[in-house]
Specification:
- The protein is of the alpha/beta class.
- It has two domains: 148 residues, Rossmann fold, CATH 3.40.50; 151 residues, NAD(P)-binding Rossmann-like Domain (Rossmann fold, 3-Layer(aba) Sandwich).
- 39% of the residues lie in helices and 18% in strands.
- The chain has 13 helices and 13 strands.
- The strands form two sheets. Strands 1-3-2-4-6-7-5 form a seven-stranded mixed β-sheet, with helices on both faces. A six-stranded parallel β-sheet has the order 10-9-8-11-12-13, sandwiched between helices.
- Strand 2, helix 3 and strand 3 form a beta-alpha-beta unit.
- Helix 7 crosses helix 8 and helix 7 crosses helix 12.
- The two termini are 38 Å apart.
- The structure holds NADP nicotinamide-adenine-dinucleotide phosphate.
- NADP nicotinamide-adenine-dinucleotide phosphate (NAP) binds next to helix 8 and helix 12.
- NADP nicotinamide-adenine-dinucleotide phosphate binds next to helix 8 and helix 12.
Length: 315
């Protein structure tokens, strides 16, 4: 019997191909992971390991560094290596979709997979980012997406797209897409148009719109918006430019910044200064993780332990 060993911070694709050797002596055995490139920043182990322990599941969750040209083989190795599944992070969420044996309807609409379940030797792809966002908004502001007029900054990126599709599927009151590269927002709007054909709102505003990223256009659009979402990659660094001028916020706005580190981003500080309510992306990270857990184990996730795990990791 091999001596007990501690999990490495990051495993490699080569480790995965000889998992019996690379993970020998791990107790509990590693049967869940996150694939990414890079992956060392991922907080998923700190969130999922307390959950597995609290649920009495004899398994641990590890990071595996997988490059694009290794993705298919790495995914195909999971059933053979006895994994329950894996999460997929940047930049593989779109690439993973093509490898799946089955893809959930929402993941197909989003065009990306962030959760893989191994079932009867097959790979089943899900996306918990959109539903995680839905739960996060309900948790932070006690409202549902379907009741909101929503503006997404960064609608051309992967996270912005997941959130926009979720808003469309939920039949939100109004959706305004904004992106630095305007073409990407326009192309997403064309795709989402069928969800917005039925009139829901009274009044002259279109239910689905793209708006250029200028103060003038944003000021006009924001009069008729309840929820502002930052889905750009800006906000993590102190040197990042301001996303919205203070003068654009109104006290009725709810602001959700998908960035969670730092916890009080410039966007959140500006929104609160102007009397708006604002929350960071930790709740989305938490709930997308909880939903992945539900896909893997078909039971409620121990959300309190997951939240504590994340909060301690971010201290
Ligand atoms: P991505 O696919 O690389 O997209 C980046 C987005 O940011 C694009 O819309 C891009 O616009 C925009 N952007 C980048 N630099 C910009 C600038 N200087 N000015 C204006 N817009 C700019 O990244 P992603 O995967 O969507 O992730 C976006 C953010 O969401 C990241 O901060 C990520 O950590 C966060 N996220 C959080 C959660 C969570 O659970 N809280 C989950 C997923 C992602 P262009 O199209 O013009 O390039």
């Amino acid at each position: 019997m091999p001596a007990k060993s501690k999990a490495k911070t990051v495993y490699t694709f080569e480790d995965l191909t000889s998992w019996e050797k690379a993970a020998a002596g791990l107790s509990p055995p590693a049967r869940l992971s996150v694939f990414g490139d890079p992956v060392d920043h991922s907080l998923s182990p700190q969130m999922h390991n307390p959950a597995l322990q609290a649920a009495g599941i004899d398994s641990q969750y590890v990071r595996i560094h997988v490059k694009a040209d290794q993705l298919e083989k790495a995914l195909r190795a999971l059933p053979e290596k006895n994994f329950f599944g894996t999460n997929i992070t940047i930049p593989h969420k779109t690439g993973a979709l093509a490898v799946m044996d089955e893809v959930d309807d929402l993941a197909r609409k989003i065009g990306a997979v962030n959760t893989v379940l191994v079932e009867d030797g097959k790979l089943i792809g899900y996306n918990s980012d959109g539903p995680g966002f839905l739960r996060a908004i309900r948790h932070e502001f006690s409202v549902d997406l379907r009741d909101l007029r929503i503006l997404i900054l960064g609608a051309g990126g992967g996270a912005g797209r997941a959130v926009a599709v979720q808003c469309a599927v939920e039949n939100c009151e109004r959706l305004v897409l904004v992106n630095r590269t305007a073409d990407k927002a326009e192309s997403l709007a064309r795709e989402l148009r069928p969800y917005f054909e039925k009139e829901k709102l009274e009044g002259p505003s279109e239910r689905l719109q793209t708006v250029p990223w200028t103060d003038e256009a944003l000021r006009a659009a924001l009069d008729e918006i309840d929820l502002i979402v930052n889905a750009t990659s800006l906000g993590m660094k102190r040197t990042d430019p301001e996303l919205l001028h203070d003068s654009l916020f109104q006290p009725h706005h709810l602001v959700y910044d998908m960035v969670y580190s730092p916890p009080r981003t410039k966007l959140i500080a500006s929104a609160r200064n102007m009397g708006a309510r604002a929350a960071n992306g930790l709740s989305m990270l938490l709930y997308q993780g909880a939903i992945s857990f539900e896909y893997w184990f078909n039971r409620d996730a121990p959300v309190d332990e997951m939240r504590q795990g994340l909060e301690s990791a971010l201290l």
